[in-house]
Automatic annotation (TrEMBL):
It is an enzyme of class 4 (lyase). The keyword Transmembrane applies. The keyword Cell inner membrane does not apply. This is Endolytic murein transglycosylase. It comes from Domibacillus iocasae. Keywords: Cell membrane, Cell wall biogenesis/degradation, Lyase, Membrane, Transmembrane, Transmembrane helix. One of its GO terms (biological process) is cell wall organization. Pfam families: YceG. Functions as a peptidoglycan terminase that cleaves nascent peptidoglycan strands endolytically to terminate their elongation. Belongs to the transglycosylase MltG family. Its EC number is 4.2.2.29. GO terms for cellular component: plasma membrane. PANTHER family: ENDOLYTIC MUREIN TRANSGLYCOSYLASE.
Length: 367
C-alpha cells in the first residue's frame, strides 16, 4: 500500500495549527466587531433622536405608567430613537422615578435631559390658554389641572365637581349622558369618567369651574351620542359603557390591543368570573403604586374587582375613543387572561396554566 494515503504527521500538524489560528483570528474579529457594535448602540442610546430638530411635542404620561410604556410613548412621538434602548439606558443610569403629567419635549433633547424633565413631574396644565386633559386621567388629576388654570386649589375644584346642585344641573342639561346612576352610594366621584380627555382653550380668565367642567361634559355627551345606537344594541347603559371603557383605558399600554383586552373582560363576565384588573384595586386604595401586592387585593371596596364580580360602580378614569370602540366592537377570542411583560408586550392565554407559564417566563424570571 502506498504511503501517500496518509500524509506525514508534520504536515497534518501544520494544517491543524493553521486552522486553529484562522479560527482564533475569526473569533477575535467577531469579538471586535461585536464590541464596536455594542459601543455604537450604547453611544446612540445617549444621543438625541434628532439633534437638529426644533420641534416641540406635547407628551402625556398617565398615572401608573410603567417605564416600558413611557419609553414606548417617547419612541412613538419621535422623542427617543428606540424605546428598548432608552429603557435600559435609564436603568443603567439608576433613574426611573418618573412623574405623571403633561410635558413639552423635543427630539433634540439628550436622554439625560429627558430623564431630568420626567423626574420633575411638572404638569403644564395650560399653555397659551390651552388646558390639556390626557386619556386615562382621573377626576382628582383633572381637578389639579383645572386648579392650575383657575387659580383655585384642587380641593376647591373637586368640591365643585361633587356639588349636588351642580350634578343636578348637569343631569338636566345632559339627560342622555348624566343620569341618576352617578348618584349611586357606592360611587366615589359622581363625574368620574364624564369629563372627556381633550385640549380645551380657556380664552376668558373669569370662566368658572362649572363652565370649564360643563364644556368637558358636553364633549363627552357629543362623543357618546355618536355611539348611541351601538350602546343601545349592546344592552349597556351609558353609565355602564363609560365604566367598561375606563377599565380598558386604564389597562391599556402603548402596545396593548384594546379590542383584545375588552374581549378578555367580556369572556370573564360570561362565565361569572371576576374581572381581576389591578387598576381597580389601585382606585379602591385611592393611591398609586408601581406594583399591586397580594395584600392589596384584600381591600374591602366595591371597586375591587378581585372581590366583586362584574363592572365597578362607576368609571375609574376617563377614556378615549379607542377604548370606547374596543368595548363596542371587541375582538372575538377565547382568552381569559393577559399580562404585560417588562418590555411592554402583552401576552394572552385561554387557561390559568398557560397564563402562569407566561408569567413565569416574562415576569418572575425577569425580576
Amino acid at each position: 500500500m502506498s504511503n501517500d494515503v496518509f500524509p506525514p504527521a508534520s504536515g497534518r500538524k501544520r494544517r491543524l495549527k493553521r486552522a486553529v489560528l484562522i479560527m482564533l483570528f475569526l473569533f477575535l474579529l467577531l469579538a471586535a466587531a461585536g464590541a464596536a457594535g455594542a459601543y455604537y448602540v450604547w453611544q446612540s442610546a445617549s444621543e438625541p433622536a434628532d439633534a437638529e430638530s426644533e420641534e416641540e411635542v406635547n407628551i402625556s404620561i398617565p398615572l401608573g405608567s410603567s417605564l416600558s410604556s413611557i419609553s414606548q410613548t417617547l419612541e412613538d412621538n419621535g422623542i427617543v430613537k428606540n424605546a428598548t434602548l432608552f429603557k435600559y439606558y435609564v436603568k443603567y443610569k439608576g433613574e426611573g422615578d418618573f412623574q405623571a403629567g403633561e410635558y413639552v419635549l423635543s427630539p433634540s433633547m439628550a436622554p439625560d435631559d429627558i430623564m431630568a424633565s420626567l423626574k420633575e413631574g411638572r404638569v403644564i396644565g395650560s399653555a397659551n390658554g390651552a388646558l390639556a386633559i390626557p386619556e386615562g386621567y382621573q377626576l382628582t388629576q383633572i381637578a389639579e389641572v383645572i386648579a392650575a388654570e383657575t387659580d383655585r386649589s384642587a380641593d376647591a375644584v373637586l368640591a365643585v365637581l361633587n356639588d349636588e346642585a351642580f350634578l343636578k344641573k348637569m343631569m338636566a342639561n345632559h339627560p342622555a349622558l348624566v343620569t341618576e346612576a352617578v348618584m349611586d352610594k357606592n360611587i366615589r366621584y359622581p363625574l368620574e369618567g364624564y369629563l372627556y380627555p381633550a385640549t380645551y382653550y380657556i380664552d376668558d380668565p373669569t370662566k368658572t369651574v362649572e363652565e370649564i367642567a360643563e364644556e368637558m361634559i358636553a364633549k363627552t355627551d357629543e362623543i357618546v351620542q355618536g355611539y348611541s345606537e351601538q350602546i343601545k344594541a349592546s344592552g349597556m347603559t351609558v353609565h355602564d359603557f363609560l365604566t367598561f371603557s375606563s377599565l380598558v383605558e386604564e389597562e391599556a399600554t402603548g402596545k396593548t390591543d384594546r379590542k383584545k383586552i375588552a374581549s378578555v373582560f367580556y369572556n370573564r363576565m360570561k362565565i361569572n368570573m371576576p374581572l381581576q384588573t389591578d387598576p381597580t384595586v389601585l382606585y379602591a386604595h385611592g393611591q398609586h403604586k408601581d406594583r399591586v401586592l397580594y395584600e392589596d387585593l384584600k381591600v374591602d371596596s366595591p371597586y375591587n374587582t378581585y372581590r366583586v364580580k362584574g363592572l365597578t360602580p362607576g368609571p375609574i378614569g376617563n377614556s378615549g375613543i379607542d377604548s370606547m370602540e374596543a368595548v363596542l366592537a371587541p375582538e372575538q377570542t377565547e382568552f381569559l387572561y393577559f399580562l404585560a411583560s417588562p418590555a411592554g408586550d402583552v401576552y394572552y392565554s385561554k387557561t390559568l396554566d398557560e397564563h402562569n407559564k407566561l408569567k413565569a417566563k416574562y415576569i418572575t424570571n425577569n425580576q
